[in-house]
Amino acid sequence: MKITLLAIGKTTDPRLQSLIEDYRRRLTHYVPFEFVVLTDIKNAKSLSEEQIKTAEGNLVLTWLLPSNHLILLDEHGQEFRSIEYAAWLQKKMSAGQDLVLLIGGAYGFSKEVYARANGKISFSQMTFSHQMIRLMAIEQLYRAMTILRGEPYHHE
């Protein structure tokens, strides 16, 4: 099983890039992991929010394989404590499907992406920038792996 964190548009802050890369390296010691960034939509300033969501959705749907288990990082998704998230991930890993966690663009997901999704999770009821959530998502994946291995990174 492989886990992919999929996002649209590059991370522009070098400090965030460095932290994301640090956790990406750590995470690959536990599970096959890839952080994939799809290119921004060209001429997005001339498009409506709905057109942007549709264009981003088409990019995502073209990238996905039929066998991918797609989970949206969505403010209306299921919330977990870190230990619960680790248990949820363990169940997904035991099922053997490749897991894709998708961070949407600034306006969220298209109807087609919602229809394709196998579930939604939320890291908080608060709103975070699409740059920051990348770091949070990868750190929580790393934390979950250390919880599953009984390592001392997480304290509870």
Report on the architecture of this protein.
This protein is an alpha/beta fold and 156 residues long. The chain has a single domain (3-148), classed as 3-Layer(aba) Sandwich (Alpha/beta knot). The chain is built from 5 helices and 5 strands. The chain has a 5-stranded parallel β-sheet with strand order 2-1-4-3-5. β1, α1 (14-27) and β2 (33-38) form a beta-alpha-beta unit. α3 crosses α5. The radius of gyration is 15 Å and the shape is globular. The two termini are 28 Å apart. The relative contact order is 0.23.
In short:
The protein is α/β, with parallel strands linked by helices. It is built from five helices and five strands, in the order E-H-E-H-E-H-E-H-E-H. Helix 3 (82-95) links the parallel strand 3 and strand 4.
The CATH H-level superfamily is SPOUT methyltransferase, trefoil knot domain
Helix content: 40-55%
Question: Main sheet: which strands, in order across?
Answer: 2-1-4-3-5
Q: Sketch the major β-sheet.
A: 5 strands, parallel
Name the average pLDDT: 93
Low-confidence stretches: none
CATH domain fold name: Alpha/beta knot
Distance between the termini: 28 Å
* Structural class by sheet pairing and helices: alpha/beta
Order of helices and strands: EHEHEHEHEH
How much of the sequence is in beta strands? 15-25%
* Backbone CA Rg: 15 Å
CATH class placement = Alpha Beta
Number of domains: 1
Shape: globular
User: Mind telling me which CATH architecture this is?
Assistant: 3-Layer(aba) Sandwich
By DSSP (H or I, 4+ residues per run), the number of helices equals 5
Q: Quick one: how many beta strands?
A: 5
